[in-house]
# Entry
Amino acid sequence: MLVGILSDTHGHADTMQTAVKLLQNRGAEYFLHCGDVGATDVLDALAGLQAAFVFGNTDWNRAGLQTYAEHLGIICYGEFGKFQLDSKSFALLHGDDGALKRRLLDEQRHDYLLQGHTHEVMDRTIGKTRLINPGALFRAAQKTVVLLDTRKDIVEFLRTT
# Structure
């Protein structure tokens, strides 16, 4: 499965729209947002797609985001999500809770741990867990997203501009 991973849009719906289209053009089948969505209209880019997200530390209107996501058919995991895609185990968080991140890495229960928050790209393997940060779509020298091929375990960072 090809998974599009995004993070840190901070309310910039136009940038999100561009990023989702880029990932769709590359074949992404499922979309995961690692938090700091910032505004409900950012979620419009995911309407009609298989998608999920978590809250980030600057997602102030959490109730509004969750309600709007439900209306669009997008899964909102709150501050942390764990799920299976293509027989792979995923943990999805924003990354601002260092204790949670350390616990998840120590437990080694997930194939992929996805996070945002730092606005810096990262792809590291710690034990059996691959830790991926797609970078950011706001306040980043280069706006980036990730295309993850779960069958081949290949991560590709894509620039949106």
